[in-house]
Amino acid sequence: MIEVNKIASLTGHQNPIYALEASKKPGIIFTAGNDKGIVEWSLKRMEFIKVLMPVPTSVYSLHALSFAPILASGERSGRVNIFDFEQQRVTAVFNHHNKPVFALASINQKRELLASSEDGTVSVVDPVNNNLLYNFQVSKEMVRCIAVSPDEKLVAFGCKDNLIRVYNVDDYSFVTEINGHTLPITSLSFSPDGNRLLSGSRDAQLKIWNVSDFNLIENIAAHLFAIYDIKFHASLPYFATASQDKSIKIWDSETFKLRKIISREKGYESHSHSINKIIWDAETGNLISTGDDKAVILWEVKF
User: Which neighbouring-strand residues pair with 207?
Assistant: First the structure.
């Protein structure tokens, strides 16, 4: 039995929110979207702290690095900003993409930042020394999402052409192509043990793939519309999915059975529009969600 209670709703954004990221500093999160500014929030006081930095165009992706005090942001214009927390300023701007940057990820062991774009390419940069290291074509269409395996040996890219493409992290050589969805891939996540790759799509299907051979283990008609995010709990055998259908669903990561639905239809004071991003707070275990209704909602989840 899973019990869910709404703790708070953080408001202040005037436009849809597309990006949500936890700071490496406990009790802090960042959000961004069409407001042309990245906002810093306190989870302890449940309030707005400040606009961390202004941006000239909408922000579609945020990523806090583990190996450096940096927050990277990807914009609609195609630029990637490097914000240094110690210097409290933008220390570098990369303009290697001419279309929106939809996803960011990092490789800790190589100290690299990956950015994927609507232009179909992925750029690899050194965010500390501010150098472009590599740029390669993944698809002829948008590369919407990125997932790095826990052992950092593989990186998967979800593409608009309905395919998942997997690469070797060592040299970014192509490994395989996974074909199973009927519409663009919108979310990807490796399981914490690295044995499974989960994918969500505009076809509303959740697919579980075996990483050893990339064969399909299970297909679940998980939502009514696109699945925009998949996040595993930090310590418990559960994961959550967020959808354009305005619902969050919590699943058992061992049996893949549905355990809880958070939505207005289920009686929760939840989101009124598409839910674009979710994260689990590592310190409290709370679930945090945000989306097109401009709200950031904190949920207490008791397992």
Answer: 199, 219
The model's pLDDT over 106-164, given as tens digits with 9 standing for 90+, comes to: 999 999 999 999 999 999 999 999 999 999 999 999 999 999 999 999 999 999 999 99
**What phi and psi values does residue 266 have, to the nearest 5 degrees?**
-95, 10
Strands 154-159, 163-168: pairing is antiparallel
Q: Whole-angstrom distance between the N-terminal and C-terminal Cα of the chain? A: 6
Q: Read off φ and ψ for residue 219, nearest 5 degrees.
A: -120, 130
3-state secondary structure 263-281: CHHHCCCCCCCCEEEEEEC
- Asked if residue 159 lies in contact with residue 144, where contact means CB atoms within 8 angstroms, the answer is yes
The DSSP secondary-structure symbol of 249 reads E
- Determine the distance from the C-alpha atom of residue 11 to the mean position of all C-alpha atoms in its chain, rounded to a whole number: 21
What DSSP designation does 244 have? T
Is residue 36 pLDDT above 90, yes or no? no
Look at residues 178, 179, 188, 183 and name the one whose alpha carbon lies nearest to residue 203: 183
Which value, to the nearest 10 degrees, does the dihedral of the CA atoms of residues 70, 289, 198, 233 take?
A: 80
265-290 pLDDT, tens digit per residue, is 999 999 999 999 999 999 999 999 99
The beta strands (E) that lie in 138-180 are given as: 143-148, 154-159, 163-168, 174-179
CB 245 within 8 A of CB 202: no
Map tokens 């064969």 to a residue.
Answer: 215
The pair of structure tokens assigned to 119 is 């232009």
Report the candidate in 52, 76, 54 with the shortest Cα–Cα distance to residue 64.
52
